[in-house]
Amino acid sequence: MKPPQHHPAADLSCDVCGLMPEPTKTRLTLANVAVMLPIELLVHAAVVDTQLPYVAKVLVLAVTATVLVIWVAEPSAARILRGWLHAPALRHRRKLAAAPALWRARTVVRDEPGSLQKITRALARLDTNILGIHVHPVPGGVMDEFVLSAPGHLLEHQLLDALHDAGGSRSRVWPTTELAMADGQTKALSLAARIADAPDELPLAVAELLHARIASPSDASAKAPDDGTRLKIPTAWHGPITFVRPGEPFTPAESARAHRLAELAEILAHRSTTARPN
Q1: Are 50 and 68 found together in one domain?
Q2: For residue 247, is it left (φ>0), alpha (ψ between -120 and 50) or beta?
Q3: Number of domain units in the chain
Q4: Where among 180, 195, 227 does a domain terminate?
Q5: Contact between 136 and 253 (Cβ < 8 Å)
Q6: Contact 257/266 with Cβ under 8 angstroms?
Q7: What's the domain range around 152?
């Protein structure tokens, strides 16, 4: 048995109510006219030549045309011409599907000439553009961190396969937004201004900087796995604060920025204490 054909416009139907989006009034009017006009001509041709009185002809035409429009014309226009009716929405859907998607990616490569070039070539073969890159020294090589603009149809495993084939290891890829284009230094300076105004905001500011969560006392006291996903920052008044980011190890640059923010908060808190009158 031949499977039923799936019309592209059917993908536009609402997942909740099942209704299609409302077409533009111009297209809906033209579609109704295209379907109604032949029906109106046939009805008129059939009724005009009859021997009915004039008033009866008008009533028959009005009732028949109304019924045919409601039961035949409008449903037929919606079914037969739905591709044309919803063409603007379909074009918009295709543009969204083909629009570049932003990704963040991390991979560890050997610290030797040509390693980064292999990664960039592998990404270029996927029509992926590198918008930003940071390099962090790590045990066993260097960690390259990218902000990527990729075609909208590209999937996570395709990016991971490209990084792996180019010699990368411990690779991770996840969707991101335009905020990723604000580099770490810019974000750290913005949070430093926040801490300058309120030093007690340090834990929340560092958590925001690192996209991490503040570990609870029980988590902080538990034995931490040696995978770089925990970061402890000493402070004079809060004691050590532990931040956790499962599955995403902290880079040396992130650790350095977090420690500098803690030092700034400590200096400001000390100045505030010494400036108070006795």
Answers
A1: yes
A2: left
A3: 3
A4: 180
A5: yes
A6: no
A7: 99-180
